[in-house]
Amino acid sequence: MISSKRQPLGRGLAALFGETEGRAPAGGGAVRDVAIELIRPGAFQPRRHFAEEELEALARSVREKGVLQPLLVRPVDEAGAAFELVAGERRWRAAQRAGLHQVPVLVRTLGDREALEIALIENLQREDLTALEEAEAYRRLAQDFGRSQTSIAEALGKSRSHVANTLRLLGLPEAVRRRLEEGALSPGHARALLAADNPAEMAAEIIRRGLNVRVTEQLVKRRTGSRRASQRQSRDADTLALEQEMAQALGLRVTIASKARGGALTLHYASLDQLDRLLALLRAG
């Protein structure tokens, strides 16, 4: 079962590994050597890609110095004859390449939810995930474990805006996400495309023209700015008046985009405090 008392993400993981010098691993577990063939990959590993060059470099280090940090595993049967990786898959893969027959492990009895959270955090803290893998890890921490963006950011030493913008990458069209995963677009390109009217079309143009991130940002800003200016000119006085009236009532900047049927209402906020005030107003109503 998961403890009802939630630990900070980073400190909780450090405690599991017993990383403080001179201390035994937390939870009463002990590090022991296990035959490498008795360990299988983790079911909750968020990483889909392992860079060949990095694995080879780690394998060379393992051949020379061994596996310096134990893998975190959980038993897959009551007899404890086989284990599933929770954290440390790169070290496990490198040890296989290095020809090791045994590796040091810390065995812990963990439920699926605990194993998933630890696997996500371990990768976010220690590895260079792709932008989409990072975004997916944040999404799962938020949805499966109720972690707020602020909680994730503080625990991992990231800014809240970094977490928020990384999560937004999951909303890009499939074609754009595929090109990002392939490396044709950088994370900087993808973040710039979040503000584009047609991200897929602009992504194709960026790749075709070989534009860098700065030029991409300027291009998106220019085209988006022209569209917004055109929209402002086309809106009638009644719409503008309604925007102003709603802005005064809500304390937020309001944009109304009318269409043939219905339209879109956009509320712009500058801080989380403004969102809290809006929520209080909605609840009071």
| CATH topology (fold) name of the largest domain | Conserved hypothetical protein from pyrococcus furiosus pfu- 392566-001, ParB domain
Portion of residues in helices? 40-55%
Structural class: alpha/beta
Span of the ends, CA to CA: 40 Å
**Secondary structure tally, helices:** 13
Radius of gyration: 24 Å
Contiguous uncertain segments of 5+ residues: 1-13, 15-28
Provide the β-strand percentage band. Answer: 5-15%
Largest sheet: 5 strands, mixed
H-E string:
HEEHEEHEHHHHHHHHHEEH
**What is the name of the CATH architecture of the largest domain?**
Alpha-Beta Complex
- Biggest sheet strand line-up: 1-5-3-4-2
Query: Total domains, how many?
Result: 4
Mean pLDDT: 78
The general outline is elongated
Total number of strands: 7
CATH class of the largest domain: Alpha Beta
Quickly describe the structure.
Helices cover 54% and strands 12% of the residues. The chain is of the alpha/beta class.
